[in-house]
Design brief:
heterodimer; A: 813 residues; alpha+beta; seven-stranded mixed sheet; 43% helix; elongated; B: mainly alpha; 2 helices; 57% helix; 0% strand
């Protein structure tokens, strides 16, 4: 055990410990109980440091809101990685506002989870006097910090956040969100105004419904009608403006879009009502008009619901670092990614991603290409050989020289593919059934209007205007459009309650049309360290307990897998524990020396090639643990049920060593392709589409980005939906994978629900038309038909969606 | 006549007040963070700077 004797890093416990305690800061079980301060025990020095900082600044209230609120600090952090924030150009892009001194900046902090987090992040000014104010938006996990550049710096603030355990996620391409927010706000204001006017107009119209317009009360009728007209003005000119705008835009391009018939109905209703009220010939249909506008806006707000903390638009830049350390003649320099040139020499630290294709100059390059290929085993690259962009350095620091600019690299050139140029959202909208129906609807309605005109022109010309305008008022397509918008809005909510987050409502319809599903293997269907195969002398329960104790405090995926393999056990006392990066764990448990780690670390020879393995050394006894990829939970149930309804394919960047296991799950018609490059995956999806298939791609990483983009519906599977996922149409929570077939069934039912409510709205339209074409349309009939059709459609869509989801075993909220 | 007239005007004014309140609440970001405010109310800002022990 030479590891124990030498070196500054070792620490050996002196006093005996009775029981294992939880870290005061983060709640992780403490291994040695040796890291203490103020009679509080910490799992590691990182957590202790955070406590010390908070304690010396009087911020220990942090620990009062929640027990163990902190995040484990056991993973060592490297602070020089924030050097780039001193670079003025990069800083300028992150800063929201500055007058040279007073500066405002926004950070997204993924670690925020409880009231303590919030309290601490809003008291940052106690930790740094340069900070004037900080405020956290808990829903979006964004903190806004106001500070004085004379007293502190951007870099200092980020380092402070990282020190106290709230490392911000910094990315340059999350700009442009604000515009969208303002647009949504406008719509909410419009909705409020329409609601207010609609309610009051309904109230003022009551006398008309009951025909109270004679005698003394008759005097008020004129007053009520004028008030209605005044209240209708903001609805017509403000709330309804977006229908006019989009309809006009469509007309200019010579197309009839969805908003055209609505705009037509609104204008005619308003015009006729205006005429009737001014000439004192009637009350008009202002209640119906404002109702239409109000309900249409409600439907759209429901449908345009967005998930504040989820981003669907990420490309490779979100994965790549913002800046890297470049070695120049003058020393080191932090350069932002777009300033990198060929021949630049870059120092790459542990866990950093290679920004562009490069050759290794010196150091031990151990590159993990799982982002790019899905292949999980890190590859050792000798000096002088090429490493590719997107790979992650798994070993210690290495020096590389770039051979290509960032955008010209093998992985990033995927984004130059034409698949990324098309506007998928726009395409989906144009393919949408509602879009097509509304076109026909307008044409049918106009021809009916023409027939009516001709009929009355022959029989009674005085009725032309009243009957035709009444027709156009009654037959507004809003019931039809509402059925789609409400169904989509409700389904979006049900989907998100079940862990499927859609980019927008048009994805639902596309999902319903899918007939072929393509899966990525690694990371999507399988998890790398799912199972463990044990080899070596039988371990006693006591020995298993020791291994468990040593592994439980490590965040390394191998340790996690080992803990899972050993099952829940009682931790025992450890007198010494140390994690050595890239090597393994060493510990002394009840006087027994234990090593867990790589073959070289434990001092044995690698037995199997191409298999991830870890070895354990317990008092001279060596045992091996082979990490075998296995199916994700839920996959074994989901795939057999999917293959009854869909054609399935599987694409893997990996080699075919697991083929047997996979074949058993899929059927003989499914194509299973291995060693697929990112571009191959994209081309495979495109090939299926050429055969007129509607393809869904389910993937997880950057290597699937091309296929996700090319497919009709691209779904990313993610263990944490707030995590970084490639650009896609929907994100599925990996824990909910077993519900995947049911979610697809629900999307198929969506069309049925829309059709049913469409049929209902057609009935209402026919009844209305029956009266209108005869010139018998009374305001009271319009006033009854309009809310009835709207309400019945709202009830129908929510009711049917609810029943179908319940039957499928999905949760509603 | 005048009683009803006043009532109508009053009811519209009350409703308008609520409309303005609604627009104000949207404008001042009150719907941006539904969970945050409920937690912020728990703070009691009595931060004591711990005496440095010598």
């Amino acid at each position: 055990m030479q590891a124990l004797s030498g070196g500054k890093e070792t620490f050996v416990i002196e006093r005996p410990v009775k029981e294992q305690q939880l870290c005061y800061h983060c709640g992780t079980p403490c291994i040695t109980n040796s890291v203490t301060l103020d009679e509080k025990v910490f799992c590691c020095d990182g957590c202790k440091l955070v406590y010390e900082i908070l304690d010396s600044n009087g911020l220990c209230d942090y620990y009062k809101f929640q027990n163990h609120p902190g995040l484990s600090q056991i993973k060592a952090k490297r602070f020089d990685k924030y050097d780039y924030l001193d670079n003025k150009d990069i800083a300028a892009k992150l800063i929201k506002f500055t007058d040279g001194n007073y500066t405002i900046v926004n950070f997204y902090i993924p670690g925020v989870h409880c009231s303590s987090c919030m309290w601490l992040l809003e008291h940052l000014n106690k930790l740094d006097i340069g900070i004037a104010e900080s405020r956290l938006n808990f829903t979006t996990k964004e903190v806004t910090i106001h500070f004085y550049t004379e007293k502190t710096s951007l870099r200092h603030i980020v380092e402070l956040l990282a020190t106290v355990g709230y490392e911000p996620y910094i990315s340059l391409d999350d700009i442009g969100k604000k515009e969208f927010k303002d647009f949504n706000r406008q719509r909410i204001y419009k909705l409020g105004v329409a609601g207010f006017c609609f309610g009051n107009i309904m109230m003022m119209s009551f006398p008309e419904y009951f025909s109270i317009n004679t005698g003394i009360e008759g005097k008020y009728v004129a007053l009520f009608r004028m008030l209605n007209l005044i209240l209708a003005l903001p609805v017509f000119f403000y709330s309804a403006s977006e229908f006019f705008n989009t309809a006009w835009k469509g007309l200019k391009q010579k197309t009839l879009n969805i908003d055209a018939p609505i705009a037509l109905a609104i204008i005619i209703t308003f015009g006729r009502s205006l005429y009737e009220i001014i000439t004192k010939t009637g009350a008009g249909y202002l209640d119906s008009m404002s109702g239409i506008v109000f309900f249409m806006l409600v439907g759209r707000v429901l449908q345009e619901r967005t998930y504040k903390s989820i981003s669907f638009h990420r490309d490779y830049k979100s994965y790549f670092p913002i800046a890297v350390t470049v070695l120049t003649d003058k020393g080191t320099e932090s350069k932002s990614l777009q300033d990198l040139k060929e021949k630049d020499v870059v120092a790459l630290h542990n866990d950093e991603i290679i920004p562009a294709d490069a050759i290794v100059l010196n150091g031990k390059a151990l590159i993990d290409y799982s982002f790019v290929t899905g292949e999980s085993q890190p590859v050792e690259v000798p000096i002088g050989k090429t490493v590719y962009a997107g790979g992650r350095q798994a070993g210690e620091k290495v020096v590389i020289q770039l051979m290509k600019p960032v955008a010209g690299s093998y992985l990033t050139s995927l984004w130059d593919h034409f698949a990324f140029k098309k506007n998928k959202i726009q395409e989906n909208k144009e393919k949408s059934i509602v879009h097509i129906l509304s076109k026909h609807f307008t044409i049918i309605l106009l021809s009916l209007a023409l027939i009516t005109t001709v009929y009355w022109a022959i029989n009674d010309p005085s009725k032309i205007i009243s009957s035709v305008s009444a027709m156009l008022i009654v037959a507004c397509p809003c019931a039809l459009l509402l059925s789609a918008t409400f169904t989509n809005g409700i389904l979006l909510r049900i989907f998100s309650a079940n862990g499927l987050f859609l980019r927008n409502a048009s994805v639902i319809e596309q999902m319903g049309k899918i007939d072929h599903i393509v899966f990525d293997k690694t990371g999507t269907l399988t998890e790398n360290n799912k199972n463990i195969e044990f080899k070596g002398p039988e371990l006693s329960d006591r020995e298993k307990g020791w291994l468990y104790t040593v592994a439980i405090s490590s965040q390394h995926p191998y340790s996690r897998a080992l803990v899972q393999y050993l099952g829940k056990r009682d931790a025992v006392n450890v007198s010494f524990w140390k994690e050595r990066r890239g090597k393994g764990l060493e510990a002394v448990v009840q006087g027994n020396e234990i090593l867990i780690g790589s073959a070289a670390f434990v001092g044995v020879k690698e037995e199997r090639e191409n298999t991830a393995a870890m070895y354990a050394y317990i008092n001279g006894k060596i045992s091996a643990f082979y990490l075998i990829p296995g199916f994700r939970d839920g996959v074994a149930e989901a795939i057999p049920s999917l293959k009854q309804q869909y054609d399935l394919s599987l694409l893997s960047g990996d080699n075919d060593r697991q083929k047997q296991q996979i074949v058993s799950l899929f059927n003989e018609h499914s194509s299973l392709l291995f060693e697929q490059q990112p571009v191959d995956k994209l081309n495979y999806v495109a090939k299926l589409q050429n055969e007129h298939k509607h393809v869904m791609m389910v993937g997880d990483g950057l290597n699937d980005a091309g296929a996700l983009q090319q497919s009709n519906v691209g779904i990313t599977l993610s263990d944490d939906v707030n995590n970084f996922t490639p650009s896609c149409d929907a994100i599925l929570d990996a824990k909910r994978f077993s519900y995947f077939p049911q979610l697809l069934k629900l999307s198929r039912s969506a069309q049925l629900i829309v059709n049913i409510s469409f049929a209902v709205s057609v009935i209402y339209n026919l009844v209305g038309l029956y009266f209108a074409m005869q010139g018998l349309m009374k305001p009271v009939i319009a006033a009854i038909l309009m809310p009835c059709s709207t309400l019945s459609i709202v009830l129908l869509t929510s009711g049917v969606s609810g029943i179908i989801s319940k039957r499928l075993g999905l949760s509603l909220n | 006549m005048s009683a009803l007239f006043l009532l109508v005007i009053a009811s519209i004014l009350v409703a308008a007040a609520f409309l303005i309140a609604f627009i104000w609440s949207v404008k001042t970001n009150q719907y941006e963070d539904e969970k945050g405010a409920a937690m912020r109310i728990l703070y009691d800002d009595s931060i004591k700077i711990k005496q440095v022990k010598n």
